[in-house]
TrEMBL record:
Domain of life: Eukaryota
Keywords: Disulfide bond, Hydrolase, Metal-binding, Metalloprotease, Protease, Zinc
One Pfam short name: Astacin
GO molecular function terms noted in the UniProt entry: metalloendopeptidase activity; zinc ion binding
Cofactor binding notes: Binds 1 zinc ion per subunit.
InterPro entries referenced in this protein's UniProt entry, alphabetically: Astacin-like_dom (IPR034035), MetalloPept_cat_dom_sf (IPR024079), Peptidase_M12A (IPR001506), Peptidase_Metallo (IPR006026)
Cofactor: Zn(2+)
One biological process term in Gene Ontology: proteolysis
Enzyme superclass (EC): hydrolase
Name of the protein in its database record: Metalloendopeptidase
């Protein structure tokens, strides 16, 4: 993840944007996009191939929610996603503004991948990282001694009243999970599975290329999809 060079935002957990001088959980629970409709526009030198990769992620979300969540080209919408090639891969959490553009950065070329686009769109739809669940210590161990000191806050847990898991079990295969070596200062693991029977999931965490079944169920539940 590249460092952000914008003066108007701060990034928490590596890729979640907040306006400067606000609290860490300011958008949690996150405002939803009304009726599951997310207007968007591309702004920047994306090739047709790159746009198709990003649109493919949008289509995946729509198909997996039976078109309950739809991405539409911006028209006269009061708020829209401006997909641009900023510095790094990041998004706001949920619908963060009442008017104007809401930036989502997919830097060319490193961030223009199906899995990365899915991850950032799910942030934009209102979801936090899986490892920040309030019950995560039952399922993973965080090795703070291996984490870059400036990034240790990225492993903080959310309070139980700020995260709704919709009765879904902890999901090592979530598209929203960190890699086991995220923000490692020495190449050693920063987060590892500890639940008996799931130790072998370490190489797969944060490396999936699609939403898990639980990602889909939580997304549908949050937006009231049938």
């Amino acid at each position: 993840m590249l460092a952000n060079n914008r003066s108007d935002i701060q990034l928490i957990e590596g890729d979640v944007a907040l306006p400067v001088h606000t609290g860490r959980t300011v958008y949690t629970p996150s405002p939803k996009w009304p009726n599951g409709i997310v207007p968007f526009e591309f702004d920047g030198p994306f090739t047709d191939e790159q746009k198709n990769i990003i649109i493919g992620a949008m289509t995946t979300i729509s198909q997996n929610t039976n078109n309950c969540i739809r991405f539409v080209s911006r028209a006269n919408n009061p708020v829209w996603l401006r997909i641009h090639s900023g510095q790094g891969c990041w998004s706001y959490m949920g619908k963060a503004f009442s008017s104007g553009k809401q930036d989502l950065s997919l830097q060319i070329p490193g961030c223009v991948h199906h899995s990365v686009s899915l991850h950032e769109f799910l942030h934009a739809l209102g979801f936090v990282h899986e490892h920040t669940r309030p019950d995560r210590d039952t399922y993973v161990r965080v090795y703070y001694e291996n984490i870059e000191s400036s990034q240790s806050y990225a492993f903080d847990k959310f309070p139980s009243n700020q995260v709704n898991t919709y009765n879904q079990a902890y999901d090592y295969g979530s598209i929203m999970h960190y890699r086991s070596d995220a923000f490692s200062i020495n190449g050693r693991p920063t987060v590892k599975p500890v639940l008996a029977g799931y130790e072998n999931w370490e190489p797969f965490m944060g490396r999936g290329d699609k939403m898990s079944a639980q990602d889909i169920q939580k997304l549908k539940a949050y937006y009231g999809c049938p």
